[in-house]
Amino acid sequence: MHTVRNKKRLIARVRRVRGQVEAVERALVEERGCEEVIRAISAARGAINALAAEVLCDHVTEHVAAPRLAKGARVEAATELVLTIRQFIG
Amino acid sequence: MHTVRNKKRLIARVRRVRGQVEAVERALVEERGCEEVIRAISAARGAINALAAEVLCDHVTEHVAAPRLAKGARVEAATELVLTIRQFIG
Amino acid sequence: MHTVRNKKRLIARVRRVRGQVEAVERALVEERGCEEVIRAISAARGAINALAAEVLCDHVTEHVAAPRLAKGARVEAATELVLTIRQFIG
Amino acid sequence: MHTVRNKKRLIARVRRVRGQVEAVERALVEERGCEEVIRAISAARGAINALAAEVLCDHVTEHVAAPRLAKGARVEAATELVLTIRQFIG
Question: Which residue of A has its CA nearest to D63?
Fold first, then answer.
């Protein structure tokens, strides 16, 4: 689905998200205060939203906007993108 | 920017969002309870997110994926889309 | 539901949200580009989230945490708060 | 910070979030399509928001609304709650 380089980048990013979720777990295990736990959750949520943005943007660049695409492939990828944007945002 | 038909649809949609924000205002003026006010705010927020999704999807269909586009116009529209997705989601 | 001062403040805030939704409508009517429309929507969404935060915080201060509350009233207001937080965030 | 029972429940919940983030990682490694990856991300985001709601609600119940609290402790916990709601939502 993604170029090798973009795939590596996305996987590095999702691993950072996992690290942030593990930080939330530690904060809960160590009985940190509400504010500190929510701050850790907020960071993880921000990272997961940024990951979603990158997945969508790679799809745009590689499968919808790239100049070399066959017409049918471009239309199909655009249909998937529209559906996915509606599900994620709308 | 949009086809005439899509423009009409988006404007009808943003007017519904305004109606929902006015409902929040009425709930505050009438001193409704917290739960009722937040429910009205939640509805308005859902409608505004759905509006954003439609604006992005029209841009995809009309300016990034349409078959008749010149290569330069498509690339430019895709660059704008990527930037906008990052700003709104990421 | 709210103190007079907080009520005024919340109503001023919801009117600013309405102004921001009207700015989105103008951007659509004037056929501004996707990025500019989404930026206006993003600002309106931020303002509506901030309004929700203030409504919740007023409820906490006036109905859940205030020292003078009867035990039953406090428990009832806390139950409403918990329900509302789950609906809005969870 | 939390009662033992609530702590266990929150930790079980954050572990489910981690499982969902791992599902996103697998979807990326296996090169699933954009829609499928975003659906997995959306599920993880929903779970992380629900976790935040539970952390806030436990704080309300245990530290702001509980009948047995000293006045100073209640005010302090309410101040932390207000700050945290503004940071997370507003």
Answer: A34
